[in-house]
Amino acid sequence: MLCPVISDQSMTQSSVTESSSLNSMSKFFLYSKKLLAVVAAITQGFYLVFRHRLYKDPNNPCNTRYVQHFCRQLCEVFNLEIHVHGVIPREPALWVSNHISWLDVAVLGSGARVFFLAKAEIEKWPLLGKLAKGGGTLFIQRGSGDSVKIKQQITEFLKQDIPVLFFPEATTSDGLRIKKIYGRILAAAIEANRPVQICLICYVNQDGQLDLVAPFINDISFADHVKKVLEMPKVKAHLMALPAISPEGHTVETLTQEVHTKMIEGLAQLHQIALKSPT
Fold this sequence. Notes:
alpha/beta, seven-stranded mixed β-sheet, disordered N terminus
């Protein structure tokens, strides 16, 4: 009587196949759960926009509380735990922050009551573009004269005590340091005579180090990065606001330099607070 011989190699291949199948199944349920949560958050966002008619006056300062609520829902979906160090001011100001990921909007919006400045392409995104516009987002076409128009618009908003946040680095980074900043829009704070409010952000993993998944950098596509974010374990997003900078006596150049210096110093301070060991 012949007995089948099962080699170690066959058993190994079988185990790998089974493990891969389970892993794929786990990812399927994870993506399904997250997708439903995202759809629920977006649906609620549209409900807020239409229920409270935010689209009729999208940049009314009172609307920022709805933006904040929506951003907090998104942070829960993407497994982000928000930690605020100190107090997040609510005085009218032109807000600036370092830029690490598309997640920054949800994180900053959950802590600060502000409207956002975003690239024009986002306005054309299905559903999200309309939701962002209804939520008071201002759109700018990079590399065009549109920034002058946006600066003038922000100036008028600031004069009406409408808070606006933009990312002066104009691109994302790994969160380790501050890149060169572009300060043309800071002219709005000077013309409106409103302070510049810096709010810094960093993402920390469960080992107490800067997270490597949250940054949206290099050549990864948006879709692939979303997948990685959906799979990542809980990440702590730390926020810290610095003392506001008065525009009095500043030119655009000197204000840009001071903002850059304060951002560098502030990020180093936030890393000392949030990380287990200084980077």
